[in-house]
Specification:
There is one protein chain. The chain is α/β, with parallel strands linked by helices and 259 residues long. It has a domain of 180 residues: Rossmann fold, CATH 3.40.50.300. The chain contains ten helices and ten strands. The longest helix has 18 residues.
Length: 259
């Protein structure tokens, strides 16, 4: 497996205030990397930086983010837009907020696909309905014809997952993708992301508080605290035999049911 994404000594700031400091890691083709850490540790910022979604106040102030030989922070907006969608895709933590409330779900998903290549509405609808069914919707056609506000938070999140996966991206960046989902639907979402790796070779970075999801999916784990890396290694080693005190504290905070 070759390397597909590499962060090299990345610093990220908002309005001059550091949010991520000296972060380095790699993502190999077909690999799943889990990023864990408490709220405010910089997990979401790290993912958004790759897609140029830091907003006007955010900036990569040092370091490089390499994707297939291209340094993403240095790309012009048009170049980055060509990559975002078919090659780099993101599942947002609050997917509902990323949809326009006055246009149907289907119209917005079709627009995204059509922007990157010719596809008929019939072809799009067949693909979208099939994916939505895999994510637990019995009537995918009805979902496509709905407005975002007609869907519950969990339904919006599943549509957001479908939106990111429709074009079979090379790299899937998932920011708390299962946080708004019921446990049974979490399982379906995790299985669908694993299928994206199996069937299309997708590489995935998943940032989450859910240690169970990381344990079920990830090959390697990066632990973050206050914008810096604390520990980085194979999943079994980090979760079961952590080397750092902070990682041990994080693992001890995970609720465990007693029978």
């Amino acid at each position: 497996m070759g390397e597909i994404l590499r962060y090299e000594h990345v610093d990220i700031s908002y309005n001059g205030r550091p949010a991520v400091r000296d972060l380095s890691f790699t993502l190999d083709e077909g690999e799943i990397l889990g990023i864990v850490g408490e709220s405010g540790s910089g997990k979401s910022t790290l993912l958004k930086a790759a897609m140029g979604l830091l907003g006007r106040d955010g900036l990569v102030t040092r370091g490089d983010i390499w994707y297939k030989g291209k340094n993403l922070p240095d790309l012009k907006e048009k170049e980055l837009r060509r990559l975002n969608g078919p090659e780099l895709a993101m599942i947002f933590q609050n997917a509902g907020a990323s949809f326009c409330p006055i246009r149907t779900v289907g119209a917005q998903l079709y627009e995204g696909m059509a922007e990157h290549g010719a596809i008929s509405k019939a072809e799009f609808r067949a693909l979208a309905v099939e994916l939505l069914q895999k994510l637990g919707f019995e009537n995918g056609g009805r979902i496509l014809d709905s407005y975002p506000f007609e869907l519950s938070g969990g339904m919006q999140q599943r549509v957001g997952i479908a939106c990111a996966m429709l074009m079979n991206p090379s790299v899937l960046l998932a920011d708390e993708p299962t946080s708004a989902l019921d446990v049974s639907v979490q399982k379906q979402a995790v299985e669908e992301m694993l299928l994206a790796r199996k069937n299309f070779g997708a590489s995935i970075i998943i940032a989450t508080h859910n240690i169970g999801v990381v344990g079920a999916m990830a090959d390697r784990v990066l632990v973050m605290r206050n914008g810096a890396a604390v520990e980085y290694g194979e999943t079994a080693q980090v979760l079961e035999r952590p080397r750092e005190n902070y990682t041990r504290m994080l693992m001890s905070a995970v609720p465990r049911l007693r029978r």
